[in-house]
Design goal:
77% of the residues lie in helices and 0% in strands. By secondary structure, it is mainly alpha-helical. It has three domains: 88 residues, Helix Hairpins, CATH 1.10.287.1080; 50 residues; 45 residues. The relative contact order is 0.05.
C-alpha cells in the first residue's frame, strides 16, 4: 500500500507543478479537457479489446491524469478536491453494497444489481433510467437502458421469447420496406437493433464489443483483399466481384 500511496502522491505533486508552471496546463478548463477525456476513454477501450496489457496500463494512467486534473481545477475554485472525489465514491460504494457493509443477504449478482437500482431510487433518482447519460452512443445507451430496467424486474422471462421478439420485429421491418415508408422503416429498423441488443444481454454478450470485433475482422479481411489487388498491380475497381470474393475467402481461412 505504501508504494501505491507514494505513486499517487507523486502524481498529485506533478499536477500541482504543471498547473503552476506549464502554459498549456494552466489554461485548461473542465470544458477544454472534456473531449480529450472522451478520446482517452476510447483509447483505453481499444487497448482492452486488443488484449495489450501494457497499452492498458498506459491508457489507465492517462485517464487517471485526467481525474487528477479535474480535481485540481475543482480545488482552485474551492468546490472539491481529490479527497472529496475519493471519499464520495467510497461513500457511494459502501451505501450500495449493503451485502458487504450491512446485513442484507444476496444469492447472486442479479440480486446485487436489483439492490443497486433500488438504492439509487432511494437516493433521489426519480426514474430508473435517470442515470443513463444522454450523450452515450446509441448502442451503448440501449444496453444500459435494458440493464437498468431488468434490474427492477422489467424483463423477459425466457430467452426464447426474446428471440421470438427479434423475428417479430424483422417481420415488421420487412412489411414497412415493402410499403416503402422511409420514416416507418427507420423506426422498425431501430426496433430490430434494440431487440438484438436485448438478446445479446441474455446471451451474456456485450454488443458493443461484439460489433467492434466484427468491425476489426472485416477491416483485416478487406485490407488483405486490397494487398492482393496491389500485388497484382490492380485497383479494386478493376477486379470482378468473383475475384474479390476469392481473396475474401482466403482472408477468412487465414
Amino acid at each position: 500500500m505504501k508504494k501505491e500511496l507514494e505513486a499517487f502522491q507523486r502524481l498529485l505533486n506533478i499536477m500541482n507543478d504543471l498547473r503552476a508552471q506549464c502554459p498549456w496546463d494552466k489554461k485548461q478548463t473542465m470544458q477544454s479537457l472534456r473531449h480529450l477525456t472522451i478520446e482517452e476513454t476510447y483509447e483505453l477501450g481499444d487497448a482492452i479489446l486488443s488484449g495489450d496489457l501494457q497499452e492498458v496500463k498506459k491508457e489507465l494512467g492517462d485517464l487517471l491524469l485526467h481525474i487528477v486534473f479535474y480535481a485540481k481545477i475543482g480545488s482552485e475554485t474551492n468546490d472539491f478536491d481529490i479527497a472529496d472525489v475519493a471519499n464520495t465514491v467510497c461513500d457511494k460504494l459502501i451505501e450500495r453494497h449493503p451485502h458487504i457493509y450491512g446485513d442484507v443477504k444476496v444469492n447472486d449478482e442479479e440480486d446485487v444489481k436489483r439492490n443497486w437500482e433500488k438504492i439509487k431510487l432511494k437516493e433521489g433518482n426519480k426514474s430508473v433510467l435517470g442515470g443513463v447519460p444522454k450523450s452515450l452512443p446509441a448502442l451503448v445507451k440501449a444496453t444500459r437502458i435494458q440493464d437498468k430496467v431488468a434490474g427492477v424486474g422489467f424483463d423477459w422471462a425466457h430467452i426464447d421469447d426474446v428471440f421470438a421478439k427479434i423475428k417479430e420485429e424483422i417481420d415488421e421491418l420487412h412489411a414497412e420496406v415493402k410499403a416503402q415508408k422511409q420514416a416507418d422503416i427507420e423506426g422498425e429498423f431501430g426496433d430490430v437493433l434494440f431487440s438484438l441488443i436485448n438478446y445479446a444481454r441474455f446471451l451474456k454478450v456485450n454488443p458493443e464489443d461484439a460489433l467492434e470485433r466484427t468491425n476489426r475482422k472485416f477491416i483485416n479481411r478487406f485490407q488483405y483483399l486490397e494487398r492482393q489487388a496491389t500485388a497484382q498491380g490492380k485497383s479494386l475497381k478493376d477486379m470482378s466481384l468473383q475475384e474479390m470474393e476469392s481473396y475474401w475467402q482466403e482472408a477468412k481461412e487465414q
